[in-house]
UniProtKB/TrEMBL annotation:
SUPFAM superfamilies: P-loop containing nucleoside triphosphate hydrolases. The keyword Magnesium does not apply. It holds the Pfam family ABC_tran. The lineage of its organism: Bacteria, Pseudomonadati, Acidobacteriota, Terriglobia, Terriglobales. CDD domains: ABC_DR_subfamily_A. InterPro entries: AAA+_ATPase (IPR003593), ABC_transporter-like_ATP-bd (IPR003439), ABC_transporter-like_CS (IPR017871), P-loop_NTPase (IPR027417). Belongs to the ABC transporter superfamily. This is ABC transporter ATP-binding protein. SMART domains: AAA. It comes from the Bacteria. GO terms for molecular function: ATP binding; ATP hydrolysis activity. Keywords: ATP-binding, Nucleotide-binding, Transport. Residues 4-234 form the ABC transporter domain.
Length: 313
């Protein structure tokens, strides 16, 4: 089932075209929204939530049009905004209950769900404290709790690890990983941090200057690049490559003793050293391919995305 569908989506703000013809279909359990500052990530989220009207084209969430079916979309979506917007005098539980009521739950159910959501994110013990006394990390967590309380089908998170120290960041990432694994809630996570997206998402939409720079299945990319290795060698490469091909590797040789390999899962780097020693080749350097999401991102940033089209990476 498609989570988000964009069809030539254009959004103009203050006389400026901020989203310029986005097209694509996102189906992942956890979708990353990446892009440099000003790329249009928050604008896209606000459009999905119905805060901005498309100037032309359309956006759909679970098949529902953001222009015409705004209320239905909001019922099924939990939103964790980037900026803090609390009523500081409320206790944690009162605030989350209030947000759940605004999302449509009756008061008694909202209260029950507020307790559950606060325990789930790890704020159970401080739920009767005023929100204004919470640390930055707790404030991020209560934003997550209020987004979860009404039982959404899609959780939209705008920069969820902003301002968190390494431990708090790791806890937030683990919670998002748990939500993904549990499987009943889809995630859309906006971030300018590749690492956050890499650790939590299986699909990514990369925006650049209001256009789609790339849309890809990270899990698939990871699988295909996992065992990509570059070697710098000295000595005869022919027998070495022949032996490796016999073991199921793809092997290409280049000038200066450079060899590129794609290895099947069962072959380990130490097997390369054994084969090299058996065939009289010296391996001087071995590089595993860089993080594939970083590769995808860098290529997307270098390419010039055409309006309404996807760049093939
Ligand atoms: N209300 C507005 N009126 C005019 N321009 C706007 C408005 N809101 C956003 N913009 C502009 O639209 C562009 C995209 O902004 P947006 O906040 O969507 O980017 P972003 O990718 O979320 O960036 P960041 O990572 O910095 O949060 C920016 O150049 C921004 O200045």
């Amino acid at each position: 089932m498609s989570v988000i569908e964009l069809n030539g989506l254009q959004v103009q703000l203050g006389g400026r075209l901020v989203l310029d013809g986005l097209t694509g279909e996102l189906r992942g359990n956890a979708i990353g929204l990446l892009g440099p500052n000003g790329a249009g990530k928050s604008t896209l989220i606000n459009t999905l939530l119905g805060f901005h009207e498309p100037t032309s084209g359309s956006a759909r969430v679970f098949g529902r049009d953001t222009r015409r079916e705004r209320a239905l979309i909001r019922q099924s979506v939990g939103y964790m905004p980037e900026n803090d917007s609390f009523i500081g005098n409320m206790t944690g539980v009162r605030f989350v209950r209030y947000m759940a009521e605004l999302a449509g739950l009756p008061p008694a159910e909202a209260l029950e769900r507020a307790h559950e959501a606060l325990f789930y994110v790890g704020l159970g013990e401080v739920r009767y404290r005023k929100v204004s006394t919470y640390s930055l990390g707790m404030k991020q967590l209560i934003k997550l709790a209020q987004a979860l309380a009404h039982g959404p089908k899609l959780l939209i998170l705008d920069e969820p690890t902003n301002g968190l120290d390494p431990m708090a960041r790791q806890r937030m990432i683990q919670t998002l990983q748990e939500i993904r694994k549990e499987g009943s809630i889809r995630l859309l996570i906006s971030s300018h941090l590749l690492r956050d997206i890499d650790q939590t998402c299986d699909e990514v939409l990369i925006l650049k200057a209001g256009r789609v720079a790339a849309l890809c299945d990270i899990a698939e990319e990871r699988r295909s690049h996992r065992n990509f290795i570059e070697l710098e060698t000295m000595g005869p490469t022919e027998r070495f490559c022949e032996t490796l091909r016999g073991l199921g590797c793809e092997c290409a040789t280049f000038a200066g003793g450079r060899i590129k390999l794609v290895m099947p899962d069962r072959i380990e780097p130490r097997d390369l050293y054994v084969t090299a020693s058996e065939t009289g080749l010296q391996i001087r350097r071995m590089n595993r391919r860089r993080d594939s999401l970083e590769d995808i991102f860098m290529r997307a940033m270098e390419a010039e995305p055409a309006r309404g089209e996807l760049v093939s990476l």
